[in-house]
Write a structure and sequence with these properties.
heterodimer; A: alpha+beta; Alpha-Beta Plaits; 4-stranded antiparallel sheet; 11 helices; 4 strands; elongated; B: alpha/beta; 6-stranded mixed sheet; 7 helices
Chain lengths: 319, 225
């Protein structure tokens, strides 16, 4: 009779608790990783598909943020260039610059004298020798005006006002192209978002399909586990970890791809920047970007396996 | 412990596997369920394990009316019942040890205790030396014993077995049945389905006869020593 009592007691109330729950998560995380490792070839192939899919929007994102950094240094700096008539002397140009500086709505004024302009042209254009051959400086003096208010309407009003000056030959408001650049960047950014959305969906479907096959292959295990009293969460867990590991591995591969691509492009970019006399350096993925890619991959893998698990696990019942 | 009250089971498609079955197995009792193939033995055991649900009537197990067990409560209910299958249903992607440990892992038993209990269970079926083997490398009789070790490792109060000796020769069959008897002696309520009359008659246990889905002379007992 005593043994009988012991038997009942042993089976009753032996429930998990948070510690057991955590332990099981750890166990499943490790065993599902081991499972992936045992089929390293196929696992890597799936992870590579995910990685390539993730690297595309990530690379575009890097591109956009670099373009933004470049245009950002010009942003808010609408400039009005006053090309003076060549007949205007340097002294007169200086007087004009001083007058303009005192006008309302003008933040700053720079004068590029005709000689200075020629010197810069020689240095930067690569046509130095051709320019030296000229007997007369063909370049006009330029007064660069920075409006205090760089909103298009205000800048345009100032432009009209300055154009009225008789010494001014031509006026250029360097605002339009900036607006166009930022519009183009907006389009690129939007396209990146759409692409990222589509590729995220692709990752979810790829993982979902992989997990669906995995579930099919482990049908007996699922049936037996259900018979032995496994909860849905217990059965779901290995598959969710499986998917999350796939996503994480994909994210890692994407990181490597983007970092490699950035490294490959870095030299030509700095060369180009040098040609523009700029010290612009390409921004890479960065730590937050890499972290985001890993977390995003993990999340997408997890979501993909949820999709498969929700659709297929319930259908498998012991018979 | 197991009580059927006018239970009928009709499968989709109109096949009635059980008709008005009533019986009771007491706590700590061991009983055989006999009848030819297709008599409804498997269906009856599936109703106990809640793999199937009755079309009519009530099943009570361990004081619990099974019609009240919802899908979410199914796992906890099933942990009270050890099930032994004719085809063992062992997993061949892991060792004997891991197979037997599965019910404990599912129940969230402390890992330190899992080793002890798995070995105790394997010792019971005399397969302690095979714990590292993969089930498929074992003989049918050994596989069936691993299946039994797995069924009892969580110490369920109820053990049901569906034709556990179906694939075994008479000698091994007797061994397996004696194992069930030993488990019954330590307090487990045991219900074994079998069509092997000669084997069943070697035990002085109550026999429930099932024929074409109906219970016949349910209280008949065999008194042979």
């Amino acid at each position: 009779m005593a043994t009988r009592e012991a038997h009942g007691a042993a089976s009753a109330g032996r429930r998990g608790g948070p510690k057991a729950w955590l332990r099981d998560h750890l166990r499943v995380a490790v065993t599902s990783l081991g499972r992936l490792y045992r089929h390293l070839g196929t696992s890597l192939m799936t992870a590579a598909v995910i990685g390539i899919a993730l690297s595309l929007p990530a690379a575009l994102q890097v591109l956009v943020s670099n373009a933004k950094a470049v245009s950002g240094s010009w942003e808010g700096s609408a400039r009005i260039s006053l090309y003076l008539k060549t007949s205007v002397s340097d002294a007169d140009a200086r007087t004009l610059a001083d007058t303009v500086r005192k006008m309302d709505g003008v933040a700053d004024v720079q004068l590029i004298a005709a000689d200075q302009a020629l010197a810069e042209f020689k240095q930067l254009s690569g046509f130095g020798e051709a320019a030296s051959a000229l007997d007369k400086n063909p370049l006009p003096a330029v007064v660069v005006v920075h409006p205090a208010d760089s909103r298009p309407e205000a800048a345009a009003a100032l432009e009209r006002q300055l154009a009225a000056n008789p010494a001014v030959d031509q006026v250029r408001l360097d605002l339009q192209w900036l607006k166009r650049l930022s519009a183009i960047l907006d389009i690129v950014r939007r396209v990146t978002d759409i692409l990222a959305g589509l590729l995220a969906l692709a990752v979810i479907l790829v993982v979902g399909n992989t997990i669906r096959l995995e579930i099919g292959g482990r049908r007996t295990e699922i049936e037996v586990s259900k018979l032995l009293g496994a909860t849905d969460a217990f059965i779901r867990r290995p598959f969710l970890y499986h998917g999350a590991w796939y996503g994480l591995a994909g994210g890692l591969i994407a990181c490597v791809l983007v970092v490699t691509a950035v490294a490959l492009v870095e030299d030509p970019v700095s060369h180009l920047a040098g040609l523009y006399g700029s010290v612009f350096a390409l921004q890479g993925l960065g730590f937050p970007g890499a972290l985001g890619l890993l977390a995003g991959g993990c999340l997408l893998g997890w979501a993909g396996s949820w999709l498969a698990v929700a659709r297929h696990l319930r259908a498998i019942e012991p018979t | 412990m197991i009580s059927f009250q006018t239970v009928s089971k009709r499968y989709e498609g109109g096949n009635e596997a059980l008709t008005d079955v009533s019986f009771e197995v007491q706590r700590g009792e061991m009983a055989f369920l006999m009848g030819p193939s297709g008599a409804g033995k498997s269906t009856l055991l599936k109703l106990v394990a809640l793999i199937e649900r009755p079309s009519r009537g009530q099943v009570l197990v361990n004081g619990q009316n099974l019609s009240g067990v919802r899908r979410r409560q199914l796992p906890l209910y099933r942990r009270q019942i050890g099930v032994v299958f004719q085809d063992h249903k062992l997993l061949n992607d892991r060792s004997v040890f891991d197979n037997v440990a599965l019910p404990l892992v599912i129940a969230g038993v402390d890992p330190a205790e899992i080793g002890k209990r798995v070995r105790a269970s394997l010792d019971l079926v005399d397969l302690l030396h095979k714990e590292r083997a993969v089930p498929i490398t074992l003989s049918t009789g050994e596989q069936q014993r691993v299946g039994i070790a797995r069924a009892v490792v969580y110490r369920p109060p109820i053990l049901i077995a569906d034709e556990p000796t179906g694939n075994l020769d008479p000698e091994l069959s007797l061994e397996v049945m004696q194992l069930f008897k030993r488990l019954n002696q330590v307090g487990v309520t045991v219900l074994v389905a079998s069509h092997d009359r000669a084997l069943v008659q070697q035990f002085a246990m109550r026999v429930l006869h099932l024929k074409a889905g109906r219970m016949t002379d349910p209280e008949e007992t065999h008194g042979h020593p």
